[in-house]
Amino acid sequence: MTAGVFIANSLASPYFLDPWNLSDATFNFTEKAIVALPLALLIICREIDLSIASIIALASVTMGFCAEAGLGTPWIVLAGLTTGALCGAFNGWLVTRFDIPSIVVTIGTMSLFRGLTYVLLGDTALKNYPAEFDFFGQGYVYSVLSFEFSLFMLLAVVFYLLLHRSTFGRRTYAIGNNPTAAFYSGVNVARHKMTLFILVGLFCGIASVMLTSRLGSTRPTIALGWELSIITMVVLGGVNILGGSGSISGVIIAVFLMGLVTFGLGLLNVPGIVMSIIIGAMLIGVIAAPILLKRMRLGAGRA
Question: How far is the CA of 130 from the CAs of 64, 68, 117, 147, 303, in angstroms?
């Protein structure tokens, strides 16, 4: 399907195959894709985080205030990463300490974190970032290869090894398939889930650094609605929304598919609201299709 979209885009627009256009296309999805990597592990573990976009916004606000205070780039980046990790830890603490479903917790913190950005900023924007901060979202490692895309590819390899070639990954699948059996097998389920929530928050901080650097400013609406795109990337990549199965390679393919679809629609001047409708339809289709196929097979078996 990804190859089909690539060919369709190249036929639809003469500008699509330009190397710099393809490089620009990666900016459409790399920040979201970086959050999709740890979120895939969290969903495999039967949990979810709907507050990811709000964490990105709150981390951006923290960095904006650090920049306004005259702090240097290392401190600004550290503030963003720390804010993300703390938000993730807060989600994980609520879920594991009080045994509240993560979908309920993160719906609440989604509003809480986003609300804090509006309270702290109002209608204003923070723009006084140092010049060297621009590299994270606008810099190139070599020729048309951007820093953002290079970092994503490196992290994709790391997460592939983490999920498919490590004890941590085997524990993630074990908890996703049967948390009770995993607990009695000696896996510290609560600590594992807590680690994943912190990891998701930390990667929201990384995405916030790159997004804020690329835009050059912080506003309370930054990354608004991104949770839909990021969760769609994960589910479209074959990760079971009910947990227990999925792969990083599938998520990577879905990331490229989503990036190509949105970039191709952008070249054709399709409005953003139409893109949201298409992404929502893709999410519903991916979740509903296996259920419908299963029912059809059961119906055929009875007949």
Answer: 11, 10, 21, 18, 69
17 pLDDT band, cuts 50/70/90, is low
Closest CA to 199 of 33, 108, 88: 88
Please say whether the beta carbons of 251 and 152 come within 8 A: no
214-229 pLDDT, tens digit per residue, is 999 999 899 998 998 8
pLDDT score of 24 more than 70:
yes
Query: How far is it, in rounded angstroms, from Cα 265 to Cα 270?
Result: 5
Distance between CA 61 and CA 65 in Å, rounded?
6
Q: Which segments of the chain does DSSP mark as H helices, in order? A: 2-12, 19-26, 30-44, 52-68, 73-98, 102-121, 135-138, 147-164, 167-177, 179-184, 189-215, 226-236, 248-267, 272-302
Closest CA to 80 of 103, 64, 98: 64
Q: Which two tokens stand for residue 72?
A: 């240097």
Among residues 248, 266, 221, which one has the least CA distance to residue 28? 266
Buried b (16+ CB within 10 A) or exposed e, 11-25: eebeebeeeeeeeeb
Structure tokens of 128? 């006084």
